[in-house]
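If you are new to this repository, start here. Below is one unmodified record pulled from the training split, so you can see the exact layout before writing a loader.
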Amino acid sequence: MASLIDNYEQQYAVLTADITAKISRIRVQSGGEKRAFVQDVDRQIEEAQELLEQMELEVRGMNGTARDRLRGRVESHRAELKRLTQEFQMVKKPKEDVTEIVMEESWDNNVTEDQRKRLLDASEKIERTGRTLQNGYRMALETEEIGSQVLKELHEQRETIQRGRGRASYQLCR
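And here is the target side for that same chain:
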């Protein structure tokens, strides 16, 4: 059951990284491209909420300290998604104030092509870094899973050895 939650967490981490990258790209986009990013982020936020609900259902079915630990992680994910949703709402909000529109247009006119290129390069670097972090997170989860499997196997081997010792000492005592 924990591996299912780990799988949900991996999916959630990939989604939130993509949402974060798209939110930063929405800031520099306009027109149809901005609308497409907004629609993508809306869909991805809904998907992330569904993943959190699935995690909560799985956690409810557990018992003991694992449930408490996982419940804390799910609440942490929920708080993160709430923060991302608020940030997204601020970014997608249309500029209603005329002075803001004028300032934005004058800013656009004052931005050189070189500055735009550097901004896009920086955005791409942030996206690559996010993917690298996600890969690292995925590897950490896989390593944790392997470690827990090794510990389980060692525990089973220990029990087998103890049973063998018990039978051997029983045989010697006869």
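Two things worth knowing about this chain: The mean pLDDT is 83. The helical segments are 2-26, 31-60, 65-92, 98-110, 113-173.
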